[in-house]
Automatic annotation (TrEMBL), chain A:
Coiled coil: none annotated. Residues 171-368 form the ABC transmembrane type-1 domain. Belongs to the binding-protein-dependent transport system permease family. Keywords: Cell membrane, Membrane, Transmembrane, Transmembrane helix, Transport. It is found in: Cell membrane. This is Carbohydrate ABC transporter permease.
UniProtKB/TrEMBL annotation, chain B:
Its main location: membrane. The lineage of its organism: Bacteria, Pseudomonadati, Pseudomonadota, Alphaproteobacteria, Hyphomicrobiales. It comes from the Bacteria. It comes from Aminobacter carboxidus. This is Alpha-glucoside transport system permease protein. PANTHER family: BLL4140 PROTEIN, DIACETYLCHITOBIOSE UPTAKE SYSTEM PERMEASE PROTEIN DASB.
Length: 384, 338
């Protein structure tokens, strides 16, 4: 018995460790861009984001001012100043004048450069260089130094991407696409689902079969004909081919089979007695639908709404085909894709933009996780 | 900016309002044209019958119209276009398909898609199942599940940026800012350019989809595991089964149907994977897949609709059988509402 309890303790400990490893792998990448988006962009490119909290140190080279900056003092020629100029302050730990020995002297020490020339470089970057003879030449003394900077966090990156990189504009474009493209299919699907569940009319069974059949159609099958159709309509009526109305309808079309499938199975399961007693009281189908079916179907409507919202917000393919690439129509995913091409190495821009694009889904996800999971369980067969 | 926000709000109100007005208005008109209240008995019955004939079509009409325009017509048209030339004007028979079979890029896409199919659904289901079982046993299991589930809310493009940062490469000896290369360098290895090393880069792209979809597998499988009757497990414990035997011989067989649904759902997703490849490599370094190739041909050199349509048809031929099986299976599992 003792050995079995010992084994189960070890086993339980192992379970905790294993889950911890999985959670780490699944969260660290996202944490990386969140931390990076808040870091100073100069620190971001020289050190890993996991070192963000520690003081970053680096060895750099600088050049002191040339002979024109010298002043004569007590018979000596002196050049004074601060090696960081007006830049952010850092802490110098050591310095040197030879590339082979960049940290030859402690900060604050006086280095003898020969021929009576001396250089003192202090921890705060201020320096004094003295010589018995006048300095010559425009190029000043080369200095190497090891400096450390305290961790700096800033929201500057967010200000930059939101207001000068166009992410703010794309954010609004994304909302403009997503909100109607979520509400419209819910309305249309709910009416259709009610009719398919509770109203009698010829061809009902066939319609249900067609809807389920359309669940299997991949999105790719629709793109080319719709692109041609949109261009044709645009040309014929002399209107732009790429409009918000166009993409709302496209997302509605692609989302409808799943929406009807999901909503119909739920609405068909509502208790018959409620409908019948309402009908006896003289309520029309329209009134029954609005006053009874819609409120009772709230959970499934919420599930579908979250699905559709996330799917439209995160969509790139449909937006690339049906919307233009101008700043008035480029959605967040498209903008992020464009930035990957144009700002490939600027990680402060990319990480911040990425975080802006994922923050809305994350909020929706965390606040409405219950409905999201319920939708997943009910409709794991989403086509798209 | 304000003008954009105002016009966005305006377009949203118009779009959503239009829908509301249609349903309310159409219904109102029907009630006015065939009134059932305030008319004599016989006429009221007559009008009620007429209403009953028309109203269902008012309700399903918009859905039918949109589905016809956006799904039914395009499927037929894409099938037709796949036998036409690049502009969709002249019939070319099977030329697009025979071109595809001979095209190096197409063959490489098929190969890569098969690779994705072999790895991603299996990995997602495997990790999802393991995490579902393990998190069931600990007090902070729900928090752990939420965190693993979280990437499911992130777009493929966002996830691509996240992982591109993980894979970021700097020359050997420099400070690595990508965590993978930093780890490799820390362990004494040589940093690699992960996403442009042919063949292996496929796996680094797959990691992204696995990272996103494992949460999906985990949630579905976790709920299936909860449905396993306690007695079967207790009986196994009494019979002296060890945890591995309980897992493989008692739990897995009972949720086999759900595992199959998860597996096929992810399989379908993999066949349509597009965004990840587009944003990470755009098919360079032999990482092309069918969906991205299709998108490419839609616009390449002004667009070749014939070839694009042929690739779309091939994707559909691959998806449809799996999808049909998946829906059947899901219905049998009682997938329509837990």
């Amino acid at each position: 018995m003792a050995s079995s309890s010992g084994k189960s303790f070890l086993g339980r400990f192992g379970v905790h460790i294993a889950v911890l490893v999985f959670v780490a792998i699944w969260t660290i990448p996202t944490l990386g861009i969140l931390v990076s988006s808040l870091r100073d962009k100069d620190q971001l490119i020289v050190s890993g984001w996991w070192t963000a909290l520690s003081t970053s140190s680096q060895t750099e080279a600088g050049r002191l001012p040339g002979a024109s900056a010298q002043i004569e003092k007590d018979g000596k020629f002196v050049i004074e100043g601060n090696i960081f100029g007006d830049g952010p302050a850092r802490n110098i730990s050591a310095f040197g004048t030879k590339a082979q020995q960049p940290t030859q002297y402690e900060a604050g020490a006086v280095a003898d450069l020969g021929e009576g020339v001396s250089l003192q470089l202090n921890a705060d970057g201020s320096f004094v260089m003295q010589s018995p003879k006048a300095f010559e030449g425009d190029r000043g003394q080369r200095v190497y130094y090891a400096s450390s900077a305290p961790p700096r966090f800033t929201t500057d990156n967010y200000r930059t991407v939101l207001f000068s990189e166009g992410i703010g504009r794309s954010f609004i474009n994304s909302l403009t696409v997503t909100i109607p493209a979520t509400i419209i299919p819910i309305l249309i699907a709910a009416y259709a689902a009610y009719a398919l569940a509770w109203m009698r009319f010829p061809g009902r069974a066939l319609l249900i079969a067609v809807i389920i059949g359309l669940l299997v159609v991949p999105l790719q099958m629709s793109l080319i004909p719709l692109l041609k159709l949109y261009n044709g309509v645009g040309l014929f009526f002399g209107v732009p081919a790429k409009t918000y109305l166009g993409i709302w309808l496209a997302h509605t079309g692609f989302g409808l089979p799943f929406a009807i499938y999901l909503l119909r199975s739920y609405i068909a399961g509502l208790p018959r007695e409620i409908m019948e007693s309402a009908r006896i009281d003289g309520a029309s189908d329209f009134e029954i639908f609005v006053k009874i079916v819609l409120p009772l179907s709230f959970p499934v409507l919420a599930s579908f709404a979250i699905f559709q919202f996330l799917w439209v917000w995160n969509d790139l393919l449909v937006a690339m085909v049906f919307l233009g690439s101008g700043s008035d129509q480029l959605v967040l995913t498209g903008k992020l894709n464009a930035l990957l091409g144009s700002r490939g190495g600027d990680w402060e821009i990319l990480t911040t933009s990425a975080f802006v694009t994922i923050i809305v889904p994350l909020i929706v996800f965390f606040s409405l996780q219950r409905y999201f999971v319920r939708g997943l369980l009910a409709g794991s067969v989403k086509g798209g | 900016m304000t003008a954009q926000i105002l016009s966005a709000i305006f377009t949203i109100i118009i779009g959503v309002g239009g829908c509301v007005v249609y349903y309310w208005g159409a219904n109102k008109i029907l009630d006015t044209v065939f009134p059932s209240r305030g008319v004599s008995g016989a006429a009221a019955v007559d009008n009620l019958r007429r209403q009953g004939l028309i109203r269902p079509w008012l309700f399903v009409g918009p859905a039918m119209l949109i589905v016809t325009v956006y799904l039914v017509y395009p499927v037929i048209e894409t099938l037709r276009l796949s036998f036409m030339d690049r502009g969709g004007e002249n019939f070319v028979g099977l030329a697009n398909y025979s071109w595809a079979l001979g095209d190096r890029e197409f063959r490489s896409s098929i190969f890569n898609n098969l690779l994705w199919l072999a790895v991603v659904p299996a990995a997602c289901t495997f990790f999802g199942l393991i995490i579902a079982v393990l998190t069931d046993k600990i007090w902070w299991g729900n928090i752990a599940k939420s965190l693993v589930f979280l990437p499911l809310a992130i777009s493929f493009v966002g996830a691509s940026v996240i992982w591109k940062f993980v894979y970021e490469y700097r020359a050997e000896g420099q400070t690595q800012i990508g965590i993978l290369n930093a780890a490799v360098q820390y362990l004494g290895g040589t940093p690699q350019v992960w996403i442009s090393t042919p063949f292996w880069n496929n796996f680094f792209l797959m990691v992204i989809l696995i990272w996103i979809q494992t949460g999906f597998a985990m949630v579905i499988l976790s709920s299936a595991l909860r449905g396993i009757p306690e007695e079967t497990i207790e009986a196994a414990v009494i019979d002296g089964a060890n945890p591995f035997q309980i897992f493989w011989k008692i739990m897995v067989p009972q949720i086999w149907g759900t595992i199959a649904v998860v597996w096929t759902t992810i399989t379908i997703l993999v066949l349509k994977v597009f965004d990840i490849v587009l944003t990470m490599t755009n098919g360079q370094w032999n990482s092309q897949v069918l969906a991205n190739l299709m998108f490419d041909w839609m616009f390449r050199g002004g667009g070749d609709f014939g070839r694009g349509a042929a690739i779309a048809v091939i994707i559909m031929l691959a998806v449809v059988p799996i999808m049909i099986w998946n829906i059947r299976q899901a219905n049998r599992e009682g997938g329509g509402g837990h």
